Every structure is written in C-alpha cells, then in structure tokens.
Amino acid sequence: MEDLVLWSRAQFALTAIYHWLFVPLTLGLGIIIGVMETIYYRTKNEQWKTITKFWMRLFGVNFAIGVATGLILEFQFGTNWSNYSWFVGDIFGAPLAIEGILAFFMEATFIAIMFFGWNKVSKGFHLASTWLTVFGASISALWILIANAWMQFPTGMSFNPDTVRNEMTDFWAVALSPIAINKFFHTVTSCWVVGSAACIGVSAWFLLKKQHIEFAKKSIKIAAIVGLAGIALTIYTGDGSAYQVAQKQPMKLAAMEGLYKGQTQAPLVAFGILKPHEKAMQDIENPSYFNIGIPYVLSFLSYRDINAYVPGITDLLNGGYPTKDGSKELSAKEKMESGKKAIQALADYKKAKKAGNEYETQKQLRILNDNYSNFGYGFIKDESELIPNVAITFYAFRFMIIFGSLFILMFIVITYLIGKKKPFENYKWFLWLCILCIPLAYMVSQSGWIVAEMGRQPWVIQDLMPTSAAISALSSSSVATTFIIFCVLFTVLLIAELSIMFKQIKKGF
Amino acid sequence: MNVFKKVFLFYYEGFRSMTLGKTLWIIILIKLFIMFAILKVFFFPNFLSSKGDTKEEKSEYIVNEMEKRTINN
Question: What's the CA gap between A247 and A257, in Å, rounded?
C-alpha cells in the first residue's frame, strides 16, 4: 500500500510539475504582450508591433506545447484517485467543467484572432483579443485554483451518506473562499514574475550578442515594470496565503517553519539548518542546528498579533491548547477516534438503511454528522502520519522566500540601469545574471507549489481524506509504468518546446 | 459576404498562411492522439466503472474500501 501511495503521489507530482513549466510562461508572457500591444495601439509606433509579434511567437510556442498537458492530471483522477474523485463529487467537477467550457473556449477563440488577425481586423479589436486571451488564460487558472483551494479548505458543501459524496451547497463559498482568492492572485502574479524573468533573460541574450539592441532594451523595460508589479503583488498575496495557512492548516505552517514546540511571540526563521526529523522530535526546544530568527514576526504574520501563540508540530499532535473560539484543541488521538466513529457510522448507516431500520439509520447519521469534521483522521494508523515532510517543506519555503525576494532587487536594479546614461548592454556580468534568472524564476515558482502540496500531506482533502484513502486499489507496478511513460512523454515535449523556442529566439525580432 | 463566410475565410487563410504554426499544430495533434487514443484508452480507464455499473454499486464499493482502510482493519 505504501508503495502505491508513493507511486501515485510521484506520478501526480511529476505531471503537475511538468504542466507548471508551461503555465507560468503563458500567464506571465501574456500580460507582457498585452502591455506591449497596448503601447503599440496608443503610439502607432511600428517598432512596438514588431516587438509584440516576436514575444507573441514565443507565447504561441509555449501555449501550443503546453496545451492540454493538464488533462493528464484529470485522467489520473479517474484511474489512480477514484476514491477521491467519487468522494469530492461535483465540487471538484464543477470548477473544472467551467474551466474547460468557458475559459478554454474563450482562449481558443481569441488566440486565433491574436495570431491570424494582424492587418485583418481593426487594431482595437486585435488588442481586445490579445487581452481577452490573457484574461481567458487567467480565468482558466482561477477555476483550477478554486478546486485546489477547496482541497486545502473544504467549504460550501455537505456530505451525503447515501451517495458517499460531498455535494456543493454554496457555490460562492467554494469560489470565493479566502484560500481560493489568495491562491489565485498569489499564483497568477507570481507567473508575471516568471514571464518577466523569461522576457528579460532572452533580451539580455540579445544584448550580449549585440543584436536587436533597441528592441531588447524596450522589452526589458516593460518586463521589469511588469515583474516589479508582479513580485510586489506576489509578496502581498503571499502574506495573505500564509495567514490563511495559519488559520486552516496549522500543521503545514509548523512544517514550513520547522516549529516543533509552540510559542508566543514566535520568531520567523529567516534561515536555518534543521536537525533530522527524529532528532528534532526528541529535542523539540532546539529542533535546528542553527537558525536566524526574526522576533515576533511569525506570531504577527500568522495571527496579526505579535503576542499570539503559534502551535508547533508536537502541540498539534498533543492538542490541549486554547483555540480562537476559546475551546481546547483536540489531540490527534482524539481526532483519530472521532474519525473512526464517523467511518464506522457511515458503514452502519448504509447497512441500517438497507435493512429498513429507520431508528438505527437516524442514530448512525447523528454520529456521522457529529464526527464528520474528523472523518479523514479515521484512516490514520499512527499519529506520526499527520506530520508532513518537514525538511522539504521548510527548505522549499525558504528557497521561495529568499530567491523570490531577490527578484524585487533584480527588477529595481534593471529599471535603474536601463535609465542610466551608460548603455545597459555594457554590464555584461549583469546580463548573464539576467539569463540565469530564467531557471531561477521557475525553481522559485515550483518550490511554492512544493510548499503548498507537500506541506498539506497527508491530506488530499484537509481533515476529510488522506492520500492513503484517496487512491484506487491498483497495483503499484501499473502506476510505476505510467509514471515512466509520462516522464518520457513530457521530456520529449520539453525538448520540442525548447528547440523550437531557441530557433525562434535565434531568428530574432 | 455573410458573417459565416467571413469567419470561415478568416480561419482558412490564417491556417493556410501559417509557417511556425504548422509545426506547432502537428505537435498538438500528435500529443492529443497519444493522450486520447493511447494513454486514456490503454492506461487510464475509469477505475470505478470496473467496480459497478450503477451509482449505488459504486458508492457501496467506496464505503467498503473506506472500511477496509480504517485502523480497525
């Protein structure tokens, strides 16, 4: 079973990571193209049209190679994650269906005008089509992120014991959940950073080659401004996301911070080296070899109060600390007992209903409803399963924050240097740094997802369904086989993308 | 010229004059073929369909699976 869980998770992670190589560039480059074409529309300067068309070509390559790679994730839901797919019912299906019908067709319609419509439709209509393509791509991301947010914070639904499915009772609670809103803006604006880094990196390559200097500098200027706006919004929404994690997924927060013992006036770890998890569990007061903490900041960021108590990993397992509403938090063991009762009540409810025993049916339904909030804990065999991989979550979070923050500096320096008298192309070392920022931006973006998804383990649906209960009863070798097939397929696609992309870049503006 | 003809010609001429786009469309079509005609058919069948035909049978299967995976078992 453990093998099957690992292979299923690895396969999903692989597909999602590859898919996420294409998405951020589509969303990020899209907005840059929109801005460039708007400048062309307003100034009527043909140079801007040439610049827009060049970046649009790269956008097209990325869009074409990346399109439908996300569908493979949906294949996996039906085959590898059938328990989960059944259990989430229409909640997951509805946003994905809207994504497929509305957003995808919107993109498909306007992208055709964007590419075929130069000199065939009016400038205004073409510009509107470009923006609608960008808007469509972002709306597409919105529905996916709403579905993902629901898994992190299930809301707006009720459980139907007859169908064994969660049914949506409040669409707006699902669509506008605070996790979904923060996640959407955090993700989309971080894509602007990736798109900007790509645009700046490619332009820097032209400057190093002393080709298309004016076009490249104009591109860098726009990308730096979009990137600066993107990173500022990413940080703002990142704070919102972390605040929501503190409220809804405290174990994830504890893992992100390597916090084993809760404390008031908790410091934020700027950097540190963690002890191995087993050692840290034995020495919860000093779980790291060293760390640089910023006093009060974790308490403030988590609860907007510098004196707030932030529970650590062991507190979350042991429970007993006061919650926001004044009640005592249950221990993991109590939650596991409660979850076990809920699952048993569901099975007994079904049996009683089949036997036509109304009294027993109602009794079991009450037990199920009373314990449903802990349903997923019933599948947990040992409380240690409730702790995500602390090291990966901790370091991925630091990587995202530290290198992500460097992009602010990067974009500010670029904006400053490009306006200086000394030609920008003379700062060769800096141009190389700009090129290096392309892979770095991707790594930062991916590490954000690693924090979000590894940090929420063992849950597929927070508190309601762990990964081990969500997977289908397949053989692990069949999942391993499809893992290898995907690995090959996606690598071929990536090579195809990069080779076509490099050819187009070499052709220039 | 009516609107439909205009739209048709817009797409027709657009596709005909594609250069890079042709390569991209070939990649898209190959990819979709691999995904839907090979992966979906041979490697990603609907798992629950093999466990029951009706919704009741499927929900019954899920409850049994859940029971099996609890700590009692």
Answer: 15
pTM of the prediction?
Answer: 0.93
pLDDT tens, residue by residue, A237-286: 999 999 999 999 999 999 999 999 999 999 999 999 999 999 999 999 99
Q: What is the mean pLDDT of chain A?
A: 93
- Chain position carrying tokens 């469509």: A136
Chain A's closest residue to B63, CA to CA, is A347
Bridge partners of A167, per DSSP, are: A158
Q: Output the CA–CA distances (angstroms, integers) from residue A127 to A110, A112, B21, in the order listed.
A: 10, 13, 20
Rounded Cα–Cα distance for residues A193 and A199 (Å):
10
Q: How far is CA A452 from CA A113, A149, A238, A388, A428, in A?
A: 36, 10, 11, 11, 37
In the structure, what pLDDT confidence band is assigned to residue B73 with cuts at 50, 70 and 90?
Answer: very low
Give contacts of B39 with chain A, Cβ < 8 Å. Answer: 72, 75, 482, 485
- pLDDT band for B18, please (50, 70, 90 cuts): confident
Chain A residues 321-350 with a CB less than 8 Å from chain B: 336, 340, 343-344, 346-347, 350
Q: Taking CB atoms and an 8 Å limit, are A381 and B40 in contact across chains?
A: no
Q: Would you call B46 and A504 a contact, using CB atoms and an 8 Å cutoff? A: no
**Where are chain A's structural domains?**
2-247+420-431+470-507, 254-318, 332-383
Q: Is B12 in the A-facing interface, judged by CB distances under 8 Å?
A: no
The per-residue pLDDT for range A469-489, each reduced to its tens digit, is 999 999 999 999 989 988 998
E runs forming strands in A154-267: 157-160, 165-168, 263-264
Query: Residue B72 pLDDT > 60, yes or no?
Result: no
Flag whether residue A508 sits within 8 Å of chain B, measured between CB atoms.
Answer: no
Beta carbons of A505 and A116 less than 8 angstroms apart: no
Q: Which residue has the higher pLDDT, A210 or A140?
A: A210
- Nearest CA distance, B45 vs chain A (angstrom): 6
On whether any CB of chain A is under 8 Å from the CB of B57, the answer is: no
Chain B interface, mutation test: which of A12, A19, A57, A75, most B Cβ atoms within 10 Å? A75
The 10s digit of each residue's pLDDT in A439-462 is 999 999 999 999 999 999 999 999
**Beta carbons of A305 and A246 less than 8 angstroms apart:** no
Q: Mean pLDDT over residues A384-404, rounded?
A: 97
Residue A274 pairs in a beta bridge with A288
How far apart CA A113 and CA A286 sit, in angstroms, is 60
Q: Do B44 and A76 touch (CB under 8 A)?
A: yes
Give the closest of B25, B35, B43 to A71, CB-based. Answer: B35
Q: Does the interface predicted TM-score (ipTM) exceed 0.90?
A: no
